[in-house]
Amino acid sequence: MKSVAIIGTGLIGASFGLALREAGFTGAILGVSSERAIGDALERGAIDRGTTLDEALETAQVLYLAQPISRILQLMPELSRARAGTLVTDAGSTKAAITEKARTCIRDAQFLGGHPMAGKESRGAGSAEGGLFRGRTYFLTPREVAELETPAAEEFVGWLRRIGSQVVTISPAAHDHLVAHTSHLPQLLSTALAVAVSESLGPAAKAGAGPGLLDMTRLAMSSFEIWDDILRTNRKEIDGALAAMQRTLDQVRARLGEDSLRDPFEIADIFAKSLRNTRP
To answer: Which terminus in the chain has less CB density within 10 A, N or C?
Structure first.
């Protein structure tokens, strides 16, 4: 892997460039993005220089798509020009729609879907960190296991491990089902909680806002622009996760003031501790 073109030099793209450098990558790291985003990425040292998509398609051995999901989907027809031997991979938060679009558009190059479970509420290269992926799950979603056995894929996976990621292979459909519960549902619950408390108490809530409310509403500071594509492209799975959550809330509500409410508390306690005990 001698050259990488990062298409979309925001938080994730710039962090990937910084991570590669910190892991010892000595090849060229190019950036394809807006003029402002390229400037920010250059200032952080995440890329060597900006370039055009045409040049990236001609020269880069790896094309790393770090744009919003809708932009990645729009870009796919252009990637039909990627050369044989090129690895095209993405960092989109949902995988079924992207993988299917890649299947119909990318011809000679190899596509390997990916999703690093890393991020921040803040955006842009200014918030990028080389250690953003360290200790975090990095999903790869090949259509067939054999896709991980090509020289390009094996080298890319090797670099993911060098930057500290825990690589997990999963199907696109299984990925979208999983993250609907572990990522998308928490975001919507945090958003809904902030709205509910705001509408019930307004400014008066601040006086009684302890660590619990602050912790639970941290995700509510996330931008709708970031989440819009995710919610649209994984709507069915998210709807199922919300329905399951609504059933659980109904059960908790029905048990208010009863000893049987101890059961969900105990189940939740065990689950929450298991998440923290297994976290790197």
So the answer is: C
